[in-house]
Specification:
The protein is mainly α. 52% of the residues lie in helices and 12% in strands. The protein has five helices and three strands.
Length: 126
């Protein structure tokens, strides 16, 4: 009985090792595909205005909503307009400063602190 159990455990351990190895290979392949997309130019439709942005600009802040959304992993399920541009349902006046901030950050420019838009900017868009 003990020998049979030992063989079962050895077999399960081998299956687990094989699964871990397959996982690491898949992870490496996935990371390679994402890294290859860093130079992609993405066309965004932001509130009806189209802008072109490098994927690496959008993903430059690890853990951010933009980094997650534009990592490449969710491209097929992301919201898109009829021309297949990524769609962001926000006013361009609010989104453009964020993109410019990320572009400046990527270029190593001295970046002044961002200020939150005042109430007049919100009401002027209504």
């Amino acid at each position: 009985l003990l020998e049979r159990r030992r063989k079962e455990l050895d077999s399960r351990e081998k299956e687990l090792e094989d699964a871990i190895e397959a996982f690491h290979l898949e992870q490496k392949d996935f990371c390679g595909r994402i890294a290859g997309k860093a130079n992609d130019v993405l066309r965004l439709n932001v509130g009806g205005t189209c802008i072109d942005v490098l994927r690496r600009t959008l993903t430059s802040v690890p853990g951010s909503m933009l980094a997650s959304k534009f990592s490449g992993r969710w491209d097929e399920s992301a919201e898109k307009d009829r021309d297949d541009n990524f769609f962001i349902d926000q006013p361009i006046e609010l989104f453009r400063p964020l993109i410019n901030f990320l572009r400046d950050k990527a270029q190593g420019c001295a970046i002044p602190p961002l200020r939150s838009p005042g109430p007049q900017q919100f009401t002027s868009n209504i």
